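hiii, so i know i said id send this last week but things got crazy w the move. better late than never?? heres the sequnce for the chain we talked about at the cafe, plus the structure i predicted for it. fair warning i was half asleep when i ran it
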Amino acid sequence: MNTLVSPENTWVLMSVMLISVAVSVYLEQTYAWASRISGAVIALIFALVLVNTNIIPPHAELYDDIVWGYVVPIAIPLLLLQTNIVKIWRETGRLLVIFLIGAAGTICGALIGCVLLGSAIDGLPKVAAMMTGSYIGGGVNFTALADAFKVSGTLVSSTIVADNLNMAIYFLILLAIAGNAFFRRIY
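okay and structure toks below
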């Protein structure tokens, strides 16, 4: 696949990523419509448009090695350093139970999906394990499980793209529901 920016052009790809993030944050902080859909979803939309218009490649060493290998594992502890654990524990006691129920539901859904579709889709158990880890514990778990199961880079990239697209659509639907007067009145 020929793209405007080649997969080996790490500095340009990184610049495109950083500019997309900066524009997304600016839009979110400046415009009400952008704050409703969030900077993260805007950045995902930028990435989807850039990949589908063949400006940036869907697979690059930068994505796997730098972003998933260094940036994500460093970002999570930095975010955690800003947290007040005592306050979180006091304010979210019931949420732990809700989280555990959601985690159990995610595991059950992955197991049922593997049983029903396992023979029809190659690599489904590995993808299900990576996605389950990601949904329960975030991107670091996704990366750790991909490494543990020795999943091919193509399958990892395909899974990330599919997940990002589905989650962007899912978040847009949730945001539309949250902003809808009918749903606010009923729920």
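btw The chain has a mean pLDDT of 87. thought thatd interest u
miss u guys!!
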